[in-house]
């Protein structure tokens, strides 16, 4: 951004690269009214990086040790970055390959719904091919990836509430079901 000239999208690492930028287009557009050229290039670069690398496995938002995996949250955050670029073109006249971004956005969403949702668990899981739940998926309706009344989301919320919520606080995931390589007990958080 013009205000942060050294800011760049991360080349790899998954959701951390996209999570902070998922609403930046609308926040800046609403606050500033216009985008500087550097802002436009940064936002397009962020979307292009997400569109190019969303299929890469990573260590996820929690930076779990071990092999890289296809974390659902990382895919959803890549979707959010590309979706916000599309909205930036539509709502603020930003430049960019909007048709390409639309196609990638739709491809990511279809992939997550097909591979990130477990019919057995009736929930979106931590990673493709896994049955482990992950609290990071609580952000899915907040970034508008899925409607808050979608039956798949409601069953995901029920499963997370049953397995990961304790006294109104949430565990990130079950480290016994998905070992993270860290010693010690898992703490909880609130949203």
Nutshell version of this structure?
This protein has 191 residues and is mainly alpha-helical. Helix content is 44%, strand content 6%. It has helices at 15-19, 24-32, 37-53, 72-92, 98-115, 151-164; strands at residues 117-118, 123-124, 165-166, 169-171, 188-189.
Descriptive notes:
It is built from 6 helices and 5 strands; from the N terminus they run αααααββαβββ. With 191 residues, it is mainly α. It has a single domain (15-189), classed as Alpha/alpha barrel (Glycosyltransferase), CATH 1.50.10. The strands form 2 sheets. It has a 3-stranded antiparallel beta sheet. Strands 1-2 form a two-stranded antiparallel ribbon. α2 (24-32) runs parallel beside α4 (72-92), α3 (37-53) runs antiparallel to α4 (72-92) and α4 runs antiparallel to α5 (98-115). Mean pLDDT is 81; it is low at 1-20.
Indicate the topology.
Elements: H1 15-19, H2 24-32, H3 37-53, H4 72-92, H5 98-115, E1 117-118, E2 123-124, H6 151-164, E3 165-166, E4 169-171, E5 188-189
Antiparallel strand pairs: 1-2, 3-4, 4-5
């Amino acid at each position: 951004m013009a205000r942060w000239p050294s800011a760049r999208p991360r080349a790899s690492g998954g959701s951390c690269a996209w999570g902070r930028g998922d609403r930046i287009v609308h926040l800046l557009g609403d606050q500033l009214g216009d985008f500087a050229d550097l802002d436009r290039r940064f936002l397009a670069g962020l979307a292009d990086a997400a569109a190019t690398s969303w299929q890469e496995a990573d260590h996820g938002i929690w930076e779990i040790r071990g092999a890289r995996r296809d974390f659902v949250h990382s895919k959803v955050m890549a979707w959010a970055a590309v979706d916000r670029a599309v909205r930036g073109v539509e709502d603020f006249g930003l430049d960019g390959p909007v048709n390409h971004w639309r196609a990638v956005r739709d491809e990511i969403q279809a992939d997550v719904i097909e591979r990130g949702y477990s019919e057995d668990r009736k929930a979106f899981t931590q990673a493709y091919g896994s049955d482990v739940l992950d609290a990071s998926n609580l952000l899915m309706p907040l970034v508008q990836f899925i409607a808050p009344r979608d039956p798949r989301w409601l069953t995901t919320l029920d499963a997370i509430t049953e397995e990961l919520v304790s006294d109104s606080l949430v565990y990130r995931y079950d480290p016994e079901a998905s070992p993270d390589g860290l010693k010690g007990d898992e703490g909880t958080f609130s949203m």
